[in-house]
Amino acid sequence: MKSSILIVTAAALALAAGATIAQPMDHSGWAADQGASHHWARGEHMGYNDWSGAQTVDYRQHHLRAPRRGYEWRESNGQFVEAAIATGVIASIVMDGHR
């Protein structure tokens, strides 16, 4: 009886460990991805894939103000987006060509 309980417990622990390993990387604070045609709004969260898929922008070259500490300018869908590096929260948006 004790050996069957130990076997069941060991199997359950092995399944739980396997489930933990199989889970995707946690991007806490990152929103779901919006897709290629989304127009961003201030206060919105960029998803991790949207953020990493957007081009990093040299703010000087595009005559944008310097990003605040912890933020970065990215270009996404014809918009310059200043968002928090850690969470993707958008602080500012400038339409390309409408500075």
- Percent of residues in helices comes to 25-40%
Which homologous superfamily in CATH is the superfamily of the domain at 28-95? inner membrane protein cigr
What is the strand tally?
Answer: 4
String of helices and strands: HHEEEE
Percentage of residues in DSSP E strands:
15-25%
What's the number of helices?
2
Computed over alpha carbons, the radius of gyration is 21 Å
SS-based structural class?
alpha+beta
Please outline the major beta sheet. 4 strands, antiparallel
The CATH architecture category of the domain at 28-95 equals: Roll
Low-confidence stretches: 19-27
CATH topology of the domain at 28-95: the name is Nuclear Transport Factor 2, Chain: A
First CA to last CA: what distance? 75 Å
Q: What top-tier CATH class of the domain at 28-95 fits best? A: Alpha Beta
Offer a few descriptive terms.
99 residues, alpha+beta, Nuclear Transport Factor 2, Chain: A, four-stranded antiparallel sheet, 2 helices, 4 strands, 20% strand, globular
Describe the structure in brief.
The protein is α+β, with helices and mostly antiparallel strands and 99 residues long. The chain has a domain at 28-95: inner membrane protein cigr (Nuclear Transport Factor 2, Chain: A). Helix content is 27%, strand content 20%.
Task: Write a structural description.
This protein is α+β, with helices and mostly antiparallel strands and 99 residues long. It has a domain at 28-95: Nuclear Transport Factor 2, Chain: A. It is 27% helix and 20% strand. It has two helices and four strands. It has helices spanning 2-22, 48-53, and strands spanning 55-56, 71-76, 79-84, 90-95. Strands 1-2-3-4 form a four-stranded antiparallel beta sheet. A hairpin with a 5-residue loop joins strand 3 and strand 4. It starts with a helix and ends with a strand.
